[in-house]
Amino acid sequence: MANEVIGTVLITEDEIKAKAVELGEIITNDFAGEEVILVGILRGSVPWMAELMKRINLSMKIDFMACSSYGADTKSSGQVKIVKDLEFDISGKNVIIVEDIVDSGLTLKYLKGYMEARNVGSVRICTLLDKPSRRKVDIHVDYSGFKVDDKFIVGYGLDYDQKYRNLPYITYLEEE
Ligand code: IMP
Ligand code: MG
Questions:
Q1: Catalytic site residue 103?
Q2: Is the whole-model pTM more than 0.90?
Q3: Closest ligand 1 atom, CA of 103?
Q4: In the chain, at which end, N or C, are there fewer CB atoms within 10 A of the end residue's CB?
Q5: DSSP-assigned letter for residue 164
Q6: How far is the CA of 157 from the centre of ligand 2 (A)?
Q7: Nearest-angstrom CA–CA distance, 162 and 152
């Protein structure tokens, strides 16, 4: 995008906070009496993870992973490189992967497989946003905040060229 401009607000901060309360209650009920490890995928998940974790009333640890796709033109290859690995041993544990957005689904499909290979007890996915029109692989999203159209989304953790992560709402970019 040569000259990008920010579009209208799609989802406000208050709507995101209310969604964290709603999904936090569901997760609390689903795992009642158990311990969970929230695994945030850096960097986009950070604001959403911060909001969500406060609304889950369970014994909890948090960890982070960072991934990148191999090369620039391998979007559809499903090849994901782990840039920062887990610090906790997840074997036998309940993991909830926290993502900013599910697009093709390739990243999450890879991460789920990666965790299953480490004998995770259970692995579920909680995403702030879902762009179902762009899905390339079949992946079950357990907890989904908002569905978005096929636009380039920024804000509330989501970036374009590492910028706009700090916007306190969800919006999109357009060419000027
Ligand atoms: P997937 O593997 O195609 O599902 O890609 C997921 C990752 O791509 C997300 O975690 C985001 O980092 C990034 N991504 C996908 N769509 C967007 C978007 O509209 N805006 C910003 N980042 C996006
Ligand atoms: Mg991401």
A1: yes
A2: yes
A3: 4
A4: C
A5: S
A6: 9
A7: 13
